[in-house]
């Protein structure tokens, strides 16, 4: 029975997960290289520890939520998380990262005696706060079943999609759509504004018809407010994901013309200082116009 859950990496998603796990009745142990994040969660009732290995020693299940391949390499280095691993521990890797990086991490975790699952979560930070996530769980079926109460504490639905790595492949498909829908929402917003339409009315009308999407519903209000400094998912995270998806698509020979087409808007948003802002900031790029964009 899972009693203690560790969370390594308490950024936007990790913080939301840790808070929800506390609310669900789990003991929660957290670690982040940004100590202030762990300290803030300790004030809510979690226990902050100094190293990833300490999280593994104290937990029945460890969730990793990390921003980059480098971060995953550091967390799964032999003297980090694996140093505290043991037989029976399950490590749930939730980040959107290249499969090769996850396979390397899996080798180190499993060499230390634990089981590693590949379980990306689909949803924004705002959705994570209200447990409106979808889990794409892949790997050992018994370990996934053991983790089900944990998933129930942080997500709306869990899909067991197959062997290790299938979760990431599924997430690449989902995030390809998210990346495109986000820019499509911004394009629609600018059209509506220049057409003299009331943003709130457009929001209500479009939500009732075929044009809506989860991303439209999540990001249109942010675009309407024109305030992007409280990110639910940042521009730089989208750039990382797009690079990962395009690389994977190239490996399997899948064309991605629309994903390639939206990339310049994320690059422009980053160049204009929106790197750590919400990805809805691509709307600011469209509103201001971008060199070479004939539609603006």
Topology:
Blueprint: E1 4-8, H1 12-23, E2 27-31, H2 35-42, E3 47-48, H3 52-58, E4 61-64, H4 69-75, E5 90-93, H5 99-111, E6 115-118, E7 121-122, H6 125-129, E8 134-138, H7 141-154, E9 157-162, H8 166-194, H9 199-207, H10 214-225, H11 235-252, H12 257-274, H13 282-288
Active site: 171
Organism: Phytoactinopolyspora halophila
Protein name: NAD(P)-dependent oxidoreductase
In spatial order, strands of the major sheet run 3-2-1-4-5-6
> What is the overall shape?
globular
**CATH hierarchy: architecture of the largest domain:** 3-Layer(aba) Sandwich
Fourth-level CATH superfamily of the largest domain:
NAD(P)-binding Rossmann-like Domain
Mean pLDDT reading: 96
- CATH fold label of the largest domain: Rossmann fold
Number of domains: 2
Tally of contiguous helical segments: 13
Structure notes:
- The protein is α/β, with parallel strands linked by helices.
- The protein has 2 domains: 4-163, NAD(P)-binding Rossmann-like Domain (Rossmann fold, 3-Layer(aba) Sandwich), CATH 3.40.50; 169-288, Orthogonal Bundle (N-(1-d-carboxylethyl)-l-norvaline Dehydrogenase, domain 2).
- Helices cover 54% and strands 12% of the residues.
- It contains 13 helices and 9 strands.
- It has helices at residues 12-23, 35-42, 52-58, 69-75, 99-111, 125-129, 141-154, 166-194, 199-207, 214-225, 235-252, 257-274, 282-288, and strands at residues 4-8, 27-31, 47-48, 61-64, 90-93, 115-118, 121-122, 134-138, 157-162.
- It has a 6-stranded parallel beta sheet with strand order 3-2-1-4-5-6, with helices on both faces.
- Helix 5 (99-111) links the parallel strand 5 (90-93) and strand 6.
- It is globular and about 60 Å long.
- The N and C termini lie far apart (57 Å).
- The mean pLDDT is 96.
